[in-house]
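User: Can you predict the 3D structure of Homing endonuclease LAGLIDADG domain-containing protein? Sequence below.
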Amino acid sequence: MVKRAFLKLHYMREHPLILRSTSYYVTIGKILNIGQSAGNQWVNSLGSSETTRVAITLDNFKWWLIGFAEGDGHFGIDNRGYLVFKITQSSVDAQVLFYIKKSLGFGSVSVQSALNKTHQFRVRDKDNLIKIITIFNGNLITKAKILQFKLFLQAFNEKYNTEIIYINNINKVNLDNAWLSGFTDAEGCFTCSAFFNKTTNKHIVTVRYIISQKDNIEFSNHLAKLINGYVSYLKSYEGYNIVVNSTKLSIIIKYINNFPLQTKKHISYIRWLKIHQRVINKEHLTPEGIEKIKYLIKSINK
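Assistant: Sure. Here are the predicted structure tokens for Homing endonuclease LAGLIDADG domain-containing protein:
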């Protein structure tokens, strides 16, 4: 059984595809379950307002991490046969991996590929994998990651002779937690373009929020409705783009302002937001304004 589960995970690595509402508190840089004595002692020493603030901050991190991992995370086995949870990023954005390590209080960050300029956050020891399982179990939303996690949990139970039960998540993505912020950090993008319309003799600027999801039309339709967007099928990608156009961006802007991005994509978002505001102010209709906007467009993803 162990060998079979590991073979499934190996296949998924080569062919990529928590107990519910758990609360966490920080003590000396580590996340602890609320039931642990050290966490209780630390929380009890705080005032009620401080306790609430810390709980909200950590809940935001938990949901951001789940969303981010649904896009860029992986549950599987490494080349040495270890069960592993990992998140890979471009080395220019390795800071977000150190942020994850610091917030969790465990795991390691290292260069994954000097050639490809990538870093990875990794957890592969039993005790900390149990903590990872506790965070994600019952909270995953996308079909591909749910399947990957189920196989991972099966292999974990067989390897360590445990009986951790998989919890099915019946909830959908919503705007009340930081899940979509994390997923946007992994799979979203902010785009702008400007061109001169000879018919109207005016410059037109398009400002869009786009997030991608492969082979999950139910998820895509639900998210599009939630954020006032539409779904576009990409044949070359065999997946879907959820797109929100210039005039319908208020929902996603309000959401991201409430649940900030944590990668360098946040810088792109701030530049994109400046362009959006300039268009609202109709600055693109003046020669000086359109030049400033074109300059900002070039800087969005630098």
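The chain is about 45% helix and 20% strand. The mean pLDDT is 84.
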